[in-house]
Amino acid sequence: MPSTSSPIASRRLALAWLTxxxxxxxxxxDQLASASHGSASxxxxxxxxxxxxxxxxxxxxxxxxxxxxxxxxxxxxMLYFGFTQCPDVCPTALIRAASLMQQLGxxxxxQQLIFIxxxxxxxxxxMLREYMTAFHPSFLAxxxxxxxxxxxxxxxxxxxxxxxxxxxxxxxxxxLNYLFDRQGSIRVAxxxxxxxxxxxxEVRKLLAEPA
Length: 211
What we know:
disulfide bond, Thioredoxin_domain, 211 residues, two-stranded antiparallel ribbon, globular, Glutaredoxin, 10 strands, alpha+beta, eight-stranded mixed β-sheet, disordered N terminus, SCO1/SenC, copper
């Protein structure tokens, strides 16, 4: 899939690609999707319950409000690191997340998708707001200084790196999705190659637990 500098065009290209291929799986530009802790079967997430990392974040949303995990108590949180000019992996992840929300039906109000940009230099709050709401009105994006993003990524053991591409650059980054239970504890890491059904199944397990 060709790269593009427009977040909305990126989403449209992803949708066109997915329609043509008939699948939500996409091979993604050398993205990393490994975890150093936990175990999983091919159709399930990686159990990282009790991990001593991925404990919290403190960043700013696209409305200028400071956010941390405690703001989403009693919800199952799915957290993903990406950037708006990502040509394929990030749009695919967000399309899958939107499908998850549809599958959850009335339970969707108890699920919160949080997107943390790894490209704060280009991902302005306005761009993040437009990008996220194009996929689902409830999706939230967080940003901060380069130092804030680096500290958060390190806390989550997320890799990202700026890669020059001609006169511009792209970002290599980890493509895992992290699930937190209603108490704000990290529980599951989901791989990029898993389907929307796989994601929905893991979210429903956490939603079924006592709040």
